Amino acid sequence: TCVSVYEYIFFYFVGPQCQFPNPCSPSPCRNGGVCRARTQGNDVELTCDCVLGYSGPLCLTPVNHACMGSPCRNGGTCSLLTLETFTCRCSPGWSGKTCQQADPCASNPCANGGQCSAFESHYICTCPPNFHGQTCRQDVNECALSPSPCRNGGTCKNEVGSYLCLCPPEYAGTHCERLYHPCHPSPCRNGGTCLQTSDTTYACTCLPGQSLLMMNECINAFYK
């Protein structure tokens, strides 16, 4: 096996002692063919592995195949699966077996994050939970649902793409699902201690040397 510290030798020479020029550098194979060099005694032979649709020693001879008639329309690219079958990679805005059909999803008709699925010349929008309609442009009124998403007497306020629960003073949470504890978490800042004075009210007491500014902020007494 030929081993060299010079990386380029692997590309330009072949053989057990790197004694033969590499006939594959540069490759003589055309049309996407892959060149392979093989040593036999004092000789070096090359072969070209041709892609579908070409043959010959250097892959120069076209073979009759399904892409020869350019079946992919509107700028689509034809790729052979076998000599008799093909697939088209269509340009943006086109779909179908031969890219013959305008893609109904190309204009992004689905709004508000809806997912567009093409069915021949038509499309269907799969809407996110908070929207509905053919193009997902209609807001779902969650406040009209029964039961209401807001619990414990909360008032539901519909918003575009969402809703808001306005809770009674003694409840909190996205859906007014939990009792309101005015000291959990503590609203008192800078080391102040929160004391619950009723179900919905609190008072802050400050550390020695501090005084209460406004309702919940303790500051140093000398602060002006």
Automatic annotation (TrEMBL):
Disulfide bonds: 50-59, 90-99, 127-136, 167-176
Name this protein carries in UniProt: EGF-like domain-containing protein
Alphabetical list of PROSITE patterns matching this protein: ASX_HYDROXYL, EGF_1, EGF_2, EGF_3, EGF_CA
Gene Ontology MF terms: calcium ion binding; Notch binding
Gene Ontology CC terms, in alphabetical order: plasma membrane
CDD domains: EGF_CA (cd00054)
Subcellular location field: Cell membrane
InterPro entries: EGF, EGF-like_Ca-bd_dom, EGF-type_Asp/Asn_hydroxyl_site, EGF_Ca-bd_CS, NOTCH1_EGF-like
Domain EGF-like: 20-60, 63-100, 101-137, 139-177, 179-219
SUPFAM superfamilies (UniProt xref): EGF/Laminin
Membrane topology, as annotated: Single-pass type I membrane protein
GO biological process, one term: axonogenesis
Gene3D superfamilies assigned to the protein according to its UniProt record, in alphabetical order: Laminin
Keywords of this entry: Calcium, Cell membrane, Developmental protein, Disulfide bond, EGF-like domain, Glycoprotein, Membrane, Metal-binding, Repeat, Signal, Transmembrane, Transmembrane helix
